[in-house]
Amino acid sequence: MKNKLKKVIAYVLSFMMLFTMSAMNISSVSAASTGSITVHTGKHDVNGVNFNAYRLMDATVSGNKVSYSISSNFTGFFTEELLNGTTGDDIDIKAYNYIKANVSTTNFQNKLKTYIATNQISADGAATGTTDTKEYTIAGLAYGYYAVIPSGEGYTPSFTTVKSSNAVDVYLKGKTPDPEKTINNKKYDSAQVGDTVDFKVESMVPNMTGYNQYYYIFKDTMTEGLTVSKDTLNLVVKIGGTVVDTSEYTLTVDKTNRIFTVEFKNFYTNHAKDANESLTFTYSAVVNEKAINDTNTSTNKAEVSYGNDPDHLTTGAPSEVKVLTHTLKINKVDEQNKPLSGAEFALYRNNVDSGKLKFVDEGNGTYRIATIDDETTTDTLVSPEEGVITVKGLSEGDYVIEETKAPDGYAKLKNTINKTISVDGNAPQTVNVEEKVTNKTESWLPETGGMGTVIFTVVGVVGVLAILSTYFKKGKKREEA
């Protein structure tokens, strides 16, 4: 009986220990899965302003890796209609890509605020501004991607990911016409020399209440790696989605310094009624050979100047983007990994039907993508003595490598090689990829009809002649006898 009682007590204690450990683990996971957002308001008067945090997407975090899924409160916001045209294998990925492309736009922010108000979505956390305090912390937030929306119409929302117990900082931005520039709907992108890239800058019509005149100037400065001209600019200006007639502004292009400006005429008269409407500029530039030498610090920027006094305009913070080119190296070797010279290749973008890419030969196995202005070009890449061909000025994407001629004494590759240049993440980075191409030499095949047969034939004939000679000599001796 005592032994049974001891066993029961042992089982109960074991269960209690297991439950306690599980509770501790649950508690630690829960504690580790919340964080906070600190809103910095600077010099803005935020007395009475509410800062509400809404979790648009849940986040699962493991070290430096994160995966997002739509939060339950916003499944009705990220509809198939909203995400139409956005890439992705499922709705979570589509929502992720949609946010990346649209988060800074007035259109996205207004849609989000309307959805929250219409559906009475409860905030996941909130803070209220006072007269003196300049920082406000919203705590106890589960991991995820948040919109911090100030009450009223004086300030724009902020967006950030809560991914650890450390506070995430956001900085309040007043409704000023500071620009937000993107390239191909991204902050960073890669392109091939000769490609046309599309830019979009979003600003807004400032509030001109209290003035009887107002000025607005847009300015964009390109890097040396981008060619800008009136012929290729394709500028379109819109206010609230309506195209602004070209007669309402003066366009100036400085090709030498790669700068163009848009200066509005009679801005107050024409657009005072459009206060807080979106003001967008879309335009294009061509990537040239100098983009190859751009570094990660070489950006192109947009900025706006505005105000009622033309001699004392306010210039807001510039918005910068980066366009990169990439490098492909073809390493030509034999079976012993020794470099091979004299191999010839063609390179295709996407597939062989696109036609061979054309290059400028810079010497010693180095080539760059040719532009329409280059007079001397080639579509053949030749491996130098060191065996390494370097091709500069490529974009990310798929390429096909075709060996068109093998070095003397080696067999040419029968199949083409597919190569993908990819960029990991939406951040500025250069990518160098390498492809090792090995050629084989083969042993001699067996030969027939060589000297060995001739020698045996000659020996045989000589032998027959010797026998006949002996025979005739013996016959002659008999006759003489």
Automatic annotation (TrEMBL):
It comes from Faecalibacillus intestinalis. Residues 193-310 form the Gram-positive pilin backbone subunit 2 Cna-B-like domain. The chain crosses the membrane at residues 449-472. Residues 1-31 form the signal peptide. Keywords: Membrane, Signal, Transmembrane, Transmembrane helix. Pfam families: GramPos_pilinBB (PF16569), SpaA (PF17802). This is Cell wall anchor protein. The keyword Membrane applies. NCBIfam families: iso_D2_wall_anc, LPXTG_anchor, RrgB_K2N_iso_D2. Residues 327-435 form the SpaA-like prealbumin fold domain.
